[in-house]
């Protein structure tokens, strides 16, 4: 029989792997100059968090994209995830490796992040599958300027006639700069002109829900997280989508210090009674077993708790991210 101590150690190791993977993910992808052809056979059966994380850790050790992983990352068929509902007012409309969330209110919808490139069509199909009228999508909240989160904005904007696109000033700046640098490469992508610029503490009210902006720099300088209400039967919980978890675009110790302050801010939101955050709807599902929890949720029986209401899991994740950032800070100080 496993002891509680053994279980906790295994949990810590798995959390460490998640932090290591997140630290290399986007920078490695950004270095890919070509989009490999889709593989005849998918690298993974389904969307297994631990297996995906293990491959990214191997990738991070070598700095070279394994051909099979590169193919999988750009294989629309392998990445496909049918829309599903973690909460009564929330649909998952993303793909396996990167998330997009659709939140329903009494006066329209809010989309969080836009996917990119080969997955924009899939996002549009997923949105259609939910039955949403595209004219009813009022806001697109974007977390930061990396292409995998905002690369679909240019394609979505003409299809969402009433939507305002939202990001921090830093987020807009880094997205536009990144898109400009991509010109002439095989990963060329376009970014829309800035629309709504928000800052920490701003609140977007829509249909009885309040979407609060929390600036969480560190992953990038322009990263923002969003707080909003999710509903499960007659219960309402406060959720957060943390804008970025990885330390993969660091320009020095000051940015790592900002990252530490940001994770401390998230921890306070969970521990304090002001917001009472109890749910984490992540930007990258493999960071916290999203697909495994999806399966548990779909098998949920009446009266059983919602597996996504788990403030302790969020606190554990934040603690691991902080520990990794403290180690990274010492490395940056020695450069």
Tell me the number of strands: 12
SSE order, as H and E? HHHHEEEEHEHHEHEEEEEHEHH
Task: Return the CATH architecture.
Answer: 4-Layer Sandwich
Query: Could you estimate the helical fraction of the residues in percent?
Result: 40-55%
User: What is the count of distinct domains?
Assistant: 1
Spatial ordering of strands, largest sheet: 1-2-3-4-5-6-7
What's the CATH H-level homologous superfamily?
Ribonuclease Z/Hydroxyacylglutathione hydrolase-like
The first-to-last residue Cα distance is 46 Å
Beta-strand content:
15-25%
Q: State the CATH topology.
A: Metallo-beta-lactamase, Chain A
* Helix count from the secondary structure assignment: 11
Features:
12 strands; 11 helices; 18% strand; Metallo-beta-lactamase, Chain A; 335 residues; seven-stranded mixed beta sheet; alpha/beta
Care to describe what's here?
With 335 residues, the protein is α/β, with parallel strands linked by helices. It has a single domain (11-74, 82-333), classed as Metallo-beta-lactamase, Chain A (4-Layer Sandwich). It contains eleven helices and twelve strands. The longest helix has 27 residues, at 4-30. The termini are far apart.
Question: Secondary-structure map with pairings?
Answer:
Blueprint (H helix, E strand, L loop, with lengths): L3 H27 L18 H14 L4 H7 L2 H4 L4 E4 L2 E3 L8 E5 L2 E5 L7 H10 L7 E5 L5 H4 L2 H4 L7 E5 H14 L13 E3 L4 E4 L2 E7 L8 E9 L2 E7 L11 H19 L5 E4 L9 H9 L12 H23 L2
Parallel strand pairs: 4-5, 5-6, 6-7, 11-12
Antiparallel strand pairs: 1-2, 2-3, 3-4, 8-9, 9-10, 10-11
């Amino acid at each position: 029989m496993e002891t509680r101590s053994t279980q906790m150690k295994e949990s810590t190791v798995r959390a460490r792997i998640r932090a290591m993977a997140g630290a290399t993910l986007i920078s490695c992808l950004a270095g890919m100059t070509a989009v490999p052809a889709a593989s005849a056979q998918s690298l993974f059966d389904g969307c297994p968090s631990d297996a995906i994380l293990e491959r990214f850790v191997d990738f991070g050790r070598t700095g070279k994209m394994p051909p099979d992983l590169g193919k999988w990352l750009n294989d629309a068929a392998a990445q496909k995830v049918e829309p599903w509902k973690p909460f009564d007012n929330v649909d998952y409309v993303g793909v396996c490796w990167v998330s997009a969330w659709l939140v329903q209110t009494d006066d329209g919808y809010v989309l969080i992040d836009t996917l990119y490139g080969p997955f924009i069509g899939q996002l549009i199909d997923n949105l259609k599958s939910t039955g949403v009228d595209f004219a009813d999508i009022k806001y697109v909240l974007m977390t930061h300027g990396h292409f995998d989160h905002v690369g679909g904005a240019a394609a979505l904007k003409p299809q969402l006639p009433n939507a305002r696109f939202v990001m921090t000033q830093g987020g807009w700046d880094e997205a536009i700069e990144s898109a400009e640098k991509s010109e002439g490469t095989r990963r060329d992508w376009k970014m829309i002109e800035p629309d709504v610029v928000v800052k920490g503490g701003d609140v977007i009210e829509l249909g009885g829900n309040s979407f609060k902006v929390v600036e969480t720099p560190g992953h990038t300088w322009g990263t923002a997280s969003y707080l909003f209400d999710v509903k499960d039967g007659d219960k309402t919980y406060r959720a957060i989508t943390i804008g970025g978890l990885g330390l993969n675009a660091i320009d020095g110790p000051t940015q790592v210090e900002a990252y530490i302050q940001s994770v401390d801010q998230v921890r306070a939101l969970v521990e304090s009674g002001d917001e009472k955050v109890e749910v984490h709807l992540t930007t990258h599902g493999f960071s916290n077993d999203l697909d495994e929890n999806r399966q548990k949720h779909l098998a949920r029986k009446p009266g059983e708790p919602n597996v996504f209401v788990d403030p302790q899991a969020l606190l554990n994740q934040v603690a691991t991210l902080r520990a990794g950032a403290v180690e990274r800070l010492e490395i940056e100080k020695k450069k």
